[in-house]
Amino acid sequence: MTTEEERGMSTRKIITISRQFGSGGKNIGERLALKLKIPFYDSALIYESAKKTGLNPEIVKDLEESPSNSLLYSLVANSFLGAGSFSPIMELPIIDKIFIAQSKEIRKIAEAGSCVIVGRCGNYILRDDPDLYSIFIHRNMEERIHQVSKINNLSLAKAEELVHKTDKRRKNYYNYYTDEEWSKAENYNLSLDSGMLGEDGCVDLIESFIEKSEIRKKIRG
Question: Of 62, 83, 134, 181, whose CB has the highest number of CB atoms within 10 Å?
Answer without folding.
Answer: 134
